[in-house]
Amino acid sequence: MNKSLLSASLVALALAAPLAHAHEAGDIILRAGAITVNPKADSSSVKVDQGPLAGTDLGGKATMDSDTQLGLNFAYMLTNNWGIELLAATPFEHDVKLKGTALPAANGKLGSLKHLPPTLSVVYYPLDSKSAFQPYVGAGINYTWIYDESLSSEAKSAGFSNFKAKNSWGLAWQVGADYMLTEHVMLNAQVRYIDIDTRATVENNSIAPGTRAKVNVDVDPFVYMVGLGYKF
Ligand code: NI
């Protein structure tokens, strides 16, 4: 076979080959993009749980703002339709505010905290066609590691100390879609709902020695990510 015939055959073969769009068993998919955690932050009222005033309900509630970071997905296709996926991200940071408590000095920005919410999910891709569009649904387990809780300068000058929030285990649900731009590169968009519940505590010895207040927060965020993926 001469060279031009060979290259013509290769071109013909390439054109005839079906576009391998569908995700297939053994595929490794890496996605990266902007990820936003938007907490619902339904909270209990703020209660004094330690010290001479223990049992006092200060009323009010806690709120958290949203934050956007770099999100990563590591996915592996177990079959042509089922995969497992790990969500990772650079650390999120949220401001924590108290509103409407009976203690005016406590209202306002209490401080901030950081967290990492790794989530391991089972994901189902219903389309087994050669469709370039690959929607999916998933469910999994989230562990949210909360760290670096720090008080605002206002809260410190109002006598607050030792701000802490508990880590959380919970379920996570997601819907998303990949759109294959080439055989390897995809666009991705996804939405998750993650059940994250924490209990925050803060001390204030200037009110009375040993005084600690607690608030239970259903952080329960919607998590949005858009980005690009690469299939190996
Ligand atoms: Ni919850």
UniProtKB/TrEMBL annotation:
<feature type="signal peptide">
    <location>
        <begin position="1"/>
        <end position="22"/>
    </location>
</feature>
<dbReference type="GO" id="GO:0044384">
    <property type="term" value="C:host outer membrane"/>
</dbReference>
<dbReference type="InterPro" id="IPR011250">
    <property type="entry name" value="OMP/PagP_B-barrel"/>
</dbReference>
<dbReference type="InterPro" id="IPR000758">
    <property type="entry name" value="Enterovir_OMP"/>
</dbReference>
<dbReference type="GO" id="GO:0055085">
    <property type="term" value="P:transmembrane transport"/>
</dbReference>
<dbReference type="InterPro" id="IPR005618">
    <property type="entry name" value="OMPW"/>
</dbReference>
<dbReference type="Pfam" id="PF03922">
    <property type="entry name" value="OmpW"/>
</dbReference>
<protein>
    <submittedName>
        <fullName>Outer membrane protein OmpW</fullName>
    </submittedName>
</protein>
<keyword id="KW-0732">Signal</keyword>
<dbReference type="GO" id="GO:0019867">
    <property type="term" value="C:outer membrane"/>
</dbReference>
